[in-house]
Amino acid sequence: MSLKNEITEQMKNAMRSKDAETLGTLRLILSELKNFEIDNGEQDDAGVVKIISKMVKQWKDAINDYKNGGREDLVAEAQLKLDVLEKFLPEQMGEDELRKIVEEVVASLPDAKPGPVTGMVMKKVAGKADGGMVSKLVRELLS
């Protein structure tokens, strides 16, 4: 079953169980996906993962902003959305595993610069690692 179909099935289950929080988040995912597909065409599972990863980053940033603004009520609501979104992402890599990949890429490039190295690592991990963590490890190894 494709990821898009799985999200649709989860949405139907949320409707049946009257889980309003989950239902709202799943509808948000499908809405973002539909808007993206209007501009860029039908997406496969990898494309759907990219869209969900972008949404996860947006909600993490929102949670950070809500915490800084002292809005704990919004933090809890955003965390629920984030939990639903993360269910559809592939298993995230650990720091040690990610560090090995970064070291391999740095070793393969004679003149390693942070931008190109980060780009190559992100292509290799494809949704399995947070961009912030990759960037941090690249800067750490190149300094």
3D architecture notes:
This protein is mostly helical and 143 residues long. The chain folds into 2 domains: 3-86, Hypothetical Protein Yqey, Chain: A, domain1; 95-142, Orthogonal Bundle (Arc Repressor Mutant, subunit A). 78% of the residues lie in helices and 0% in strands. The protein contains 7 helices and no strands. The protein has helices at residues 3-16, 20-40, 45-68, 72-86, 95-108, 114-125, 131-142. Helix 2 (20-40) crosses helix 3 (45-68) and helix 2 (20-40) packs across helix 4. The longest helix has 24 residues, at 45-68. The chain is globular. The model has no long low-confidence stretch (mean pLDDT 89).
What structural class is derived from the secondary structure elements?
mainly alpha
Helix percentage range:
over 70%
CATH superfamily of the largest domain: Uncharacterised protein YqeY/AIM41, N-terminal domain
- Indicate the CATH class of the largest domain: Mainly Alpha
Q: Which consecutive residue ranges, at least 5 long each, have pLDDT under 50?
A: none
- Strand composition percent: under 5%
The total domain count is: 2
Distance between the termini: 44 Å
Instruction: Give the ordered list of helices and strands.
Output: HHHHHHH
Count, helices: 7
- Radius of gyration based on Cα positions: 18 Å
Give the tags:
143 residues, mainly alpha, Hypothetical Protein Yqey, Chain: A, domain1, Arc Repressor Mutant, subunit A, 2 domains, 0% strand, globular
Tell me the layout of helices and strands:
Layout: H1 3-16, H2 20-40, H3 45-68, H4 72-86, H5 95-108, H6 114-125, H7 131-142
Helix pairs in contact: 1-2, 2-3, 2-4, 3-4, 5-6, 5-7, 6-7
